[in-house]
């Protein structure tokens, strides 16, 4: 497995990256962690004429509070997120999810920006970002635009990222007091990708659930917010009975994947099981 010939450039700035993308268009690929791109190169599923390495761009690697948001640079590694005290304080499902990704080698090198740009349906970040009401900042030589996560993830390995654009930042609103979050996953034991992953965010005040956000990855050909589960628990008392009833609505009306890891019926069952675990962790 030998890749086709390509030029390699280590970018020194965001502006330099955007210049390469504008110049080469679809013939340029961004190299960050490389865990998805490099195998595709070896199999010649991707044959770019130029690789632009952004892994060492300090201006894309940060986790900081920005007003009422937490801003995460796209080149922040999974380990950066797993060890972030700021995220642990405000949105604990982010470090929790990061710690479940791959193995130490993957977590030390892989980046959140690369993961969401690839949009693997079994990747962890897409579902987590949907539940977090995150926004994705995209930049090109023409300027910046910001998309809600639900508008960024479009389908099977498909996003709203246009030619010439780079994911530069993920912005997450700081949840209100009383909000808890979690990410629960049934993972493929070798790759640690999600067969079913469920992210949940719930605010509980005086025993009542509000701002319920539940999202899945690994279940369908793209991540999705589960409105049926959310509606079933929104405004309800945080009781075991209400949580079980809400979880039973998981993955209703969704086209569910079936493969050698899990058949459709089993995946749907797992979605309900892990929705219950997630909701119990944040509202039980």
TrEMBL record:
Protein name in UniProt: Carbon-monoxide dehydrogenase (Acceptor)
Record EC number: 1.2.7.4
GO molecular function: anaerobic carbon-monoxide dehydrogenase activity; FAD binding
Lineage: Bacteria, Pseudomonadati, Bacteroidota, Saprospiria, Saprospirales
Top-level class of the enzyme under EC nomenclature: oxidoreductase
Keyword annotations from UniProtKB, A to Z: FAD, Flavoprotein, Oxidoreductase
Taxonomic superkingdom: Bacteria
Domain FAD-binding PCMH-type: from-to ranges: 1-177
